[in-house]
Amino acid sequence: MTISLPLPMWDFNTELTTNLVESEMLSPEVSAIQVFDLKSNLFASASRDKKGRIVSVVDLDKVEGIPIEADLYHQLADHSAEPALPQNKIGSVVIYFTRHRIDELLRSNALHSIFEILVIDALLIFTLRFSLRLVFTPLGQLRDALMELAEHGGEDVEELPETQKNEIGEVIQCFNQTQRKFKHVIEHLRQAEEATRAEAVKADLAYVALKAAQETMLQTEKLASLGGMVAGVAHEINTPVGITLTSASVLKEATDHLNKAMADGAMKKSEIVAYTTTAGECARLIMKNAERASHLINSFKQVASDQTSEQRREYELSAYIDEVMSSLRPTLRLNQVQVNVNCPTPIAIDGFPGAMAQVLTNLTMNAITHAFTERGQGVINITANQVGETVNLTFADNGVGIPQANIGKIFDLFFTTQRATGGTGLGLNIVHNILYKQFGGSISVSSEAGKGSCFFMHFPRVIA
Asked: pLDDT at position 17, please?
């Protein structure tokens, strides 16, 4: 309206202005319109009477509504590139809008909007329910299939029908593929479990066989060390027995010569003196070498008996160490190894002397085999003492020592650095097992390259 009124007002065309105002009154929410000139004089007006007809006289006292005022401008024609700007204010217009009509329109529009919303909501609910049914039905089937798959492991779960050609159908296809792969994996796992059980049975049998072979090898190792001891003792006994036989032979010849002189009646004093001298020297040699052979035989007999019988008895540690070293003396002499035993006070052991002989023998043979690379310089020092009811036994040598890389492995079963020369890797493992399992003690080792090795053993005086 602010666009159409300025021109007739500028031309002072009251009739045209009135027609324009009355045309704006056609809108039912407009109750009255007033047009004023620049001096606030009424230029044109229109309103509705009681019957709703449009009249040109406005009774402001009877007008109901909300007034809205706007200024009126006349724009000069501008042919430049820039748009025309508002100029020359020529008046103003006041429009009265009736609240009742506005409320009716709003009410009508609200009812219409509510109806449209209800219809749209109903359509949306129906569409959503239908769509959700299309979604949730296969999802429910998928859920049930997943639960059954989780409970039964996929053995009896049937594949879902692949009828839908949408995202849900793709999910179902993926589920069926996953289920097939899952069944395939389960079958492989079942086969693997059966193979594992079969391998476990084989492993158990192999372990039993290995234990039996290990026991056999341990017994063989013990018998081998005993056999070596037998050979050494036999060789050692040869010397005193040979001297004894030679002395007995000399004594017999001297006796036969004396008997012949007595029979011929040509006995001389010098012959009797020579015979008594020879007989005395032969008797001394026979007694000395017989005692030496007897000592060797008794020592070997005791040690061999202890190693084969493994019976429990009481024994004095220092004396028993001497007996074991006496049995090993031929091997020690052959390799020019000196053994020093230092046991200041007697230590009475209640246990298994055969196991102790095995420990001492294996440690000695290990030192001879690995520690002493050159003859004539080997020294073994064995020291024993008692602290309370605990016996401390130290076995030290001045050999080449143990490489640091091997110290943690020397007690392992079958570990040896001399396999090419017949080493079995059982000697120190047997020592370890005897100290820990049979004696209830412990063993440790300290070694430095070029300065020998030292084994520290601790065990109770009374073996449980």
From this structure: 81
From residue 94, alpha-carbon distances to 6, 24, 67, 151 in Å are: 14, 12, 6, 81
**Distance between CA atoms of residues 367 and 382, nearest Å:** 12
Summarize the confidence of residues 140-162 as an average pLDDT. 65
Q: What is the arithmetic mean of pLDDT over 35-43? A: 85
pTM of the model: 0.44
| Angle between helical axes of 167-264 and 269-309 (0-180°, round to 10) | 160
Render pLDDT for 235-266 as a digit per residue (tens, 0 to 9). 556 666 777 777 788 778 888 887 887 887 77
Non-local (6+) Cβ contacts of 382 within 8 A are 321, 339, 340, 341, 342, 360, 393, 394, 395, 396
CA distance 295 to 121: 118
Q: What does the pLDDT average to over 183-199?
A: 83
Rounded CA-CA distance 275/255 in Å is 7
Q: Cα 353 to the chain's mean position, in Å?
A: 44
pLDDT tens-digit profile of 337-391? 899 999 989 999 999 888 888 899 889 988 888 888 765 678 999 999 999 999 9
Amino acid identity of residue 41, one-letter, is N
Rounded Cα distance, 72 and 90, in Å: 6
Q: How far apart are CA 162 and CA 147, in angstroms?
A: 19
